[in-house]
Design goal:
The protein is an alpha+beta fold and 92 residues long. It is built from two helices and four strands. α1 crosses α2. The protein is globular.
Length: 92
Amino acid sequence: MDIEIISQEPDYIRLKLIGESVTFGNILQEQLNEDKRVDGAGLLTPHPLKKEIIFQVYVNNGDSIQVFQDNIEKLKNKMLDLKKQIEIISDK
């Protein structure tokens, strides 16, 4: 995956994720919108056949890039927890 920052301000970031589908984008968008520091996170797909997505994230508290990074970390931890629970189930 490649990332291109299209524009960035302290309370806003717009970036392109190249090599990812809208499925991944929807999961990340939902995580971002759960954060109280986020006023809104939107997802655009420039073309349905291209594997790239564009995120727009508006924050009300904190630096936009830091909020984005924090939520990626939260999503990563959720996936690790899910993996552990699946491993527990499969060991039974």
